[in-house]
Structures
1.
Amino acid sequence: MTMGGMRFDLSADATPSRRWLRFAHPWVAVFLAGCTTGPIPTSIDAVAEGYVRVTLQLAQHDPSLVEGWRGETTWRPGPRVPVAPLLRRIESLQHDLGASSDPATADRHAYLAAQLAALEWYAQRLLGRSGGFDEEVMRTFGRVPTVPADDHTRAILAAVARELPGSAPLASRYADFKRRYAVSPAKAEALMRAALNACRTATRQSYDLPPDESIELMLAAGLEWDGYAQYLGAHRTRISINEHAALDVSRALRLACHEGYPGHHLQFLLMDETLVRRRRWPEFELTPAFGRHLLFTEGAAEAAADLALPFAARVAIYRDILLPLAGLPSQAAVTIARLDDLVVGLQPVAVAILRDYLDDRLTQAAAAERLRVDALTPDPDALLAFAERQQARVSAYVLGREAVMSAIATGGPAAIGRLFTERPFAVQ
């Protein structure tokens, strides 16, 4: 296991001693005639192809399941197939995967098993199956969110109150603070580019990035998310930022780390180099928006800012780069960084509120008020609308972050490589 200061070299001209990510792991399936009296088990390669194909077919019914496919064009589906036979195909692949168990491919096997289990749930839901929030999270992510203790939440809110003294309600004080350090639309693109450069500089302390890697940044309207990263191949990622979403210096830095370095852009580079090019696992040319894949890609991206930029580093970036660029006073850099760390702890509170809302235990008005007061959510209505579209998938960010931070402990950004290269998606 490679941790701490070890560097992961992705460059094409790496020397043999440093080409950590460039050794090949060829997978050769050898079937010896006469070694078994039963049918020859389906290879895991065949299951992987079947998984990609049936996922693309099911996405014709629910496009939110797939963000992209960069593999063989012949694998793209033809005319739409009804969901019922697709569900039977998923169940058949699960059976075949069970028959292909091999210790040499245990991590790949676990990944495909988790993805197929989640896909089975979405097929059943398309056929009319209903279930509560916790059931969907368990079926698709293999875990359920915990409800934060009231005293823990009160302690966080009390700490926020100490950072923002005043007589107005805390939610109002926090919202006013965020507005005070908001970025004007005219400066948003320049601020995002500066934030990406800061995250890239920090990430290069642990990773030798390919010399031709690049990010194409664009501000766009009509995005469902604040930011969205799409891998274009050849070490290039396009990051779209919602030009209508509120942007302050803290949000800019976290978006840059989440979508870029060491978030989704770095994830794409690691998976493309190791899992696709070297191991030739075509399932990783698919970008699914479900299952264990979503849980750990979003979880690692959520943890990215904390992993790449410890408290002192974030203070320096706010004070010396982002606040001056935005034309805002730099004296608030320490307070902004402290609030970063505190408010992250309220994310599980927001998930618990969203669960009650989606399970019809809270009205929209009550959920919005609780999000504003208990979770200090800047735009509760927007978050509720997002949850209505994403359903239980909205929990991936919080559950995934908890799983990733627990798995890599204090390994820093270098430890992210373990999730996407050494034992891909094998965190339990």
Note: Residues 8-141 form one domain.
2.
Amino acid sequence: MRILLFFIGILFSISTIHAQEAYKFSKVIDLDATPVISQGNTGTCWSFSATSFLESEIIRLTGKQIDISEMYNVRNTYPVKAENYIMRQGKAQFSEGGLAHDVFNSIRNHGLVPNDVYSGLMNNNTRHNHAEMVAVLTSMLKTYVGKPGKTLSANWRSAIDAVLDEYLGKNVNSFTYEGKEYTPKSFMEMTRINPDDYVNITSFTHHPFYDPFILNIPDNFSNGSFYNVPLDELVQIIDHALENGYTVELDCDVSEKTFSSKDGVAIIPSNPLNNLKALQGVYPEMKITQQYRQQEFENYNTTDDHLMHITGMVKDQNGAKYYMVKNSWGTDPTRTTFDGYVYFSEAYMRLKTISITLHKVGVPDAILGRLKL
């Protein structure tokens, strides 16, 4: 009996050592993407991630690597947010947040410009900080809704524009790029980006599958519509896109203790006691079902608090799949392990993905058919 217990102890020790083995990743898919940059002290991850996604699309479509302006999209989205807030008499969210389709709405109406044409940095600043600007805009809008002059000022739109001009810079009508004159819309045409080629997809059971619906999350101020698919198909879409050369825009929850930019991983251990230890070493992960995903969403344990950009796939030493997810928090080595990327396990992706955006050609044909696209 003692001998049997001795061998059981050895086997347990071996399995424990194996479970705690440090991550060893190897790349499987690594699609073209522009360098990681920082969104600074702003809540504009939606623009940074969607712009990064567009930059990869431009590389795929034209072979050109172009640094697209994130702040041009931000500058042209704030008036839309303000309009929504005013017209809803202050009963709507006005914040720095947004979603990927807000960038597509912006470029559909206002085109694209390079970052060196519109950086959004004023007065020789080198880092984005929107805290004061947002406080000023919020105060103005609350004042307008309160109508201290008994009627809404006829000049409120121009006043909001003046603040945005002061903090981000005046809008762009024309510019020169590589010796050629462009408008923002003609520049977008040159990049071959067509906003109508892109589709938003999610996976929740409170709406029918394969039908579009307005996803009721706080940052969806513009009432963007999302196609709804089963969870297994959501993962299938991401995998198929990456395997066929299409990167994917990601809206997700990063508020979990098992997401760590510093450690460079995002995982869902099957035993919560391993949550922190699993940031440094391989532990078994939870099997995420559609039901559990829905439960966590409806309990507000999964929220849309960050947008990022999926550009590839890696595997660990056990062959498990992880997604290469480009962040917008910079590349400071004290804050990141993989040069600004975070490797999401499939379990984390299944549980914490709110939605994805991608070129519709990146979606498998069978699913496109069910979506009637």
Note: The first strand starts at residue 26 and ends at 30.
